[in-house]
Each structure stands twice: as C-alpha cells, then as structure tokens.
Amino acid sequence: MYAELAAAWDSLKKKGSRFIVLKPLFLMSRERKIALERKIRGHEQFQKLRKADCVVVSFGKSGRTWLRVLMSRVYQTRYGLKENVLFGFDNLHRHNAAIPKIFFTHDNYLKDFTGNTDSKVDYYGKKVVLLVRHPGDVAVSQYFQWRYRMRANKKALNDYPDHGADIEAADFVLDHEAGLSKVIGFMNNWARDFDKVGEVFIIKYEDLRKNPESTLKELMNFVGIDATPAEIAEAVRFASFDNMRRLEEQAAKSWFGGGRLKPKDKTDKNSFKTRKGEVGGWRNQFAPVQVAAIEQRIRDELHEVYAYAPRTLETAPLATAAKAAG
What we know:
With 326 residues, the chain is mainly alpha-helical. It has helices spanning 2-22, 30-51, 64-79, 91-95, 110-114, 135-148, 152-157, 169-174, 180-191, 194-197, 205-210, 212-223, 229-238, 241-252, 288-301, 318-325; strands at residues 54-58, 102-105, 128-132, 200-204.
C-alpha cells in the first residue's frame, strides 16, 4: 500500500508544481504557455531519464500499457507484489532494490528541455527498449485516443486537432500532422540514431502478439532478469486482452484507480485503453483507395530497418530487426 500511496503522492506533486508555475501566468499567450509547460514536462522526463536503469520508448498507442502490465507481472510474480502495482518508474524498486527503475516514455517533451531536437543524444549510454507497431494501427488508435480519451489541454500541448473538432479517421490519419506523418517521423528519428544510442532492443507489437512467451523472454533478458518459464507464462496469462479489460472495468469503479488503465467514459467502449488490440485492424476503417494511399506512404517514407511490409502483416523476426538496428 505504501508504494501505491507514494506513487499517487509523486503524481500529485508533479501536477501541483506545474499548476504553481503555470496558473499565475494567465496573461501569457497560449503559445508561450504551451512552450513553458512542454519545457516543465521535459525537465520531469530528464530527471527520470538520469536515474533510470532502463528506458522503454514508444509512440502513443503502440501497446505500451500492455507491455507495462507484462513486465510488471514478471516482477510481481517473482517478488510477491500485488497485481495492481504496475511500473511507475521507481515504485517497484521501492518494494525491492533488485527491481530496476524503468522509465516508460513517449519521448514527447524531453527535447523541449534539453534542446536536442535533431538527435537522441539524451539517451546515449542508456539501455533502451523501443516498442514499435505498424504505423497504420498506431495512427488509427491515435485517432480514437484523440476523439474519446485525450483531454483538451493535452490536444493543445501536442498539436492535435482542437477539442470537439469534427474530423473523420481518414482525414486525421492521412492529412493531419498528428496522424501518419507524426508516427513515421517518430520512428524515423529513432532509426537514424540507433548506432549511437548503444544498447537498443527493438520489440514489435506484432511479434509480441504472435509469440508472446518467446518475445517477452528475450525482452526480460535484455532488461536484466532471467525470467522462468512459469513467470513468463503467468505474465502472458495476466496480460491477456480479456483480463486487461477486466482490470480496466474494475478501475472504472474506483476513485483511486489512476489513469493508466482506466476508461475515460465507462459507458463507451471506444474510450477504454484496451479498445481492441488488433493487428492490422486499421484497414477496416478505410475504403480500399485510402488503404492503398496509407500503404504507399509507409512504403515511401518509413525507414527500412522496421521491415513493415506494406501489403502484408508479416514482419521481420525480432532478432533481424535488432541486428539491423545495431
């Protein structure tokens, strides 16, 4: 219970510090307030990055919550922790010093503090897990995140369409800067610096879905724990889609449930974190001509290291991708 309360207190302190700084600046222009908040958030990320034993980086809606639950469950099982204690940077480390401090980040704001916009120099020397997913699935999931879960201030902060804007999925994905362009840009920026960052483990959402036990085992070895077959099997069972939806529905009934695994509106299934979790489901949102346009964009623009074939759901084996990155 101590770790849960400590994590909640840390979150309140973080939000409170932003409020104290930003609230008196009501006369400041919207653009300057956004820039200042991004810098404050970047400083928070910088402090965690400095202390982290490992960093898990992903674009939003790439399966980070699922991966967080999988990794947390391995340590929960080994050290007898409660199932609702998920990684929140160093909270599991507070339970047991043998558990690493793992920083989960979407790499949104760090550059606003450090000024390193053209490289990943801030991550040099760190052990980095890069979680990636097919850009089509990510962009569509981002659309639902924007439409049903994202707070108005977050939309402004990250240059998404205005709150309440009437935008269809195809327009969001193909035409808005927050859609496919942003996803591909994120992945390409990381690909250009793989050889400089050092220890990088590329994990594909699709591989984790197809071969969860072996993929999770490789990941945990990289992080630094020789997880047993029983620990891996329990993590995969616990993080199944049905069980994650159950956990989210339970969190919806609790005032202390936190935001990581909690629906925005418990009556609307589109607002759940665990919405579908499909591989290739993005195609169902578009007409054939739009599917073809998205596939062409990925073929033309996405770095080849990720090996996402635009006309098939097959992906390169994890080891091949990791070797290419190094």
